[in-house]
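pasting for the record
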Amino acid sequence: MSQKKTRPRKVTSHDVAERAGVSRAAVSRTFTPDASVSAETREKVHKAAKELGYRVNYLARSLINQRSDLVGVVAAGLDNPFRTLQIDHLSRTLLAHNFRPLLLPTSSTASTSDFIEQLLQYSVSGVLVTSDAPPTALCEECAAYGIPIVLINKGEDIPFVDRVVSDDKTAGQMAADLLIEGGAERPAVMAAPGVSYTARRRLDAFVARCRNLGKTPDILPIPVNDYTSGFEGAAQLHGTNIDGLFCVNDYLACGVVDRLAKDRAIRKSGPVRIIGHDNIPQASWHAYQLTTILQPCDIQAQQAIDLLISRMEEPEMPARVEFTPVTMIKRRTA
């Protein structure tokens, strides 16, 4: 007869303490960020843990402490390469500060109550909310539950909720300056301002700057600020003498560039200079060589997490706003 196999017993902190010859409290301190423990004890504990295959159960620890090392990262539009880049930097910066990111993809139709339930179940230490997601109600409820929250590139002013916002006003002005100084007589901007706070701010700044420089820009409306809308929206250039175009993000601009390369009949009146925003990796590809405005994700991530940590320490302080600087990156398209 074959013997019934049994699961190996789970290694506990008590086992590690016995192997290392230290107390359980010493084991706990070793795996607690910034806790006081001697180098000798730390080395013993890590050696014993490795030999036994011990792993810290952070979720179980959160039930005891009523607070985990998890930080919720709420994001939509994950098809956009900029969002991927942004999430990567946020995650790496959180890990560098001994937090663990919990990604919660969402959409405009997502249930606010479901998100709140998930955040409370995991006893998150805080929440980072990126642009285009989620509804204001979620942010307000998080604040009401006392969960520290930072909004990134969102426009809502909510008590005790901090924000990090890219310097969209300067970006719009820089785009207008470069196009008009480069000789554009009929500048234009392509955006879906109704669905994006950043798109609206960039559009408004671009239009105002063009008018200050004596030009009346065209506004090319699209349904969403994505690649498909850029590809299809480029048809609006047909039959016009628009010679300079600011697209409010690179994803959109790449769609425009591809459509113009595919359908040269759209531009019978001549070439058009194109500027994007974000400096996604694809912007530097040979097929695009897109002139764009850098929104530095590393700086923005550090700003957001610094605000989050200080909000954890002083939850009652007034809401704050920090602006992320932008830089023009010149390439072939303008």
